[in-house]
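Next comes a concrete protein, fold included:
___
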Amino acid sequence: MCDLMPSTQPTEKIGKMKKLRRTLSESFSRIAFKKDDSGFDEICVTKMSTRNCQGMDSVIKHLDTIPEDKKVRVQRTQSSFDPFEKPTNQVKRVHSENNACINFKGSSAGKESPKVRRHSSPSSPTSPKFGKADSYEKLEKLGEGSYATVYKGKSKVNGKLVALKVIRLQEEEGTPFTAIREASLLKGLKHANIVLLHDIIHTKETLTLVFEYVHTDLCQYMDKHPGGLHPDNVKLFLFQLLRGLSYIHQRYILHRDLKPQNLLISDTGELKLADFGLARAKSVPSHTYSNEVVTLWYRPPDVLLGSTDYSTCLDMWGVGCIFVEMIQGVAAFPGMKDIQDQLERIFLVLGTPSEDTWPGVHSLPHFKPDRFTQYSSKKLRQAWNKLGYVNHAEELASKFLQCFPKNRLSAQAALSHEYFSDLPPRLWELPDMSSVFTVPNIKLLPETEDSVRVCGKTNSKGLTNSKH
């Protein structure tokens, strides 16, 4: 791995960062629209090229290492330092801002400054067009962050509901790097479990990303059904999460911000990965990663201890935390104070690490043995009793929640775990763009007050045998 910029003085680095941001943001003004069969436009962006960097379309190299494999509800906050932003700039996200991620379709690499092609109805030259701000009606504000506001909207072109993520542009700074990063990473990703970008609108003041509208997220869903979700629904949600992660991990992309707010849930139960603003490709040019990633509750111990050398195992810890939360009904490690408190909560269950259980832990920047109480590991069901009600759930959760990163199960390997053995085999044969709900007898079940007491015993079609 190498960095975007050579090692220079901090002031020179900041200057080059700003120059890079301005250069990359100019790329958004070179957009060509090509209508696809669905009635939405395909978005083509001119491949970026500058003198000072290799561009965001650098050839992606293989990961150094890929493993073989809330009733507590308090306000969730995110410390998300971005190495490309000013050190004091911390991005804050809210629930509904998660109706957003970027998925560019196609690339006009090699072409120079393509002209914008507008599509309109032949019968009405003044009819709404894709790529224009007046083509969408804002219905209500869903949420607001430090650099973007998200609205529920409606397309005047085809009448579909959309989510409008309006990013405010600053003349000096240009387009926020998080938006550029989303565009760069997701333009080639097409998957049923990744939220879809429909359109993009670039003006002098704003950059608006238009996404498919998904009415809720997993955090809101769990708030609506406290005490733990129906075991069969947990299984379907987890399967879809792993399916989406396996897809991006095979393309050497890390999400780096897995949490219930960033997992959208449709009315049919479709789960979609969203908000890739912190996602990174493990590729050249990149020398290191920030250790200020992932909301505190879902941040793995290696990152909490200062590690910046991580791989897909970063996301898999978050999967384990979310899995436990769906079954138990409370966050797995709800740190209330700081990083020290977060680590203590983890070690209380998994045991305080040593060189024997975690080779290299003593070399991590923030690991000081005398700072932590010495705990021995315990069975997960001792901390979260409902794991014992569901066949193979505790075993699978333990494979995700490993302090030593290289011991964590990969997304691809987890899909083959015995926990999923009672699901229809056709689920593993689905094309990337096909929903799991296209398989017969797969559907989201009603959440009932006593669903947490169901042992999760299912038949070969994935339907619950227990009465509830």
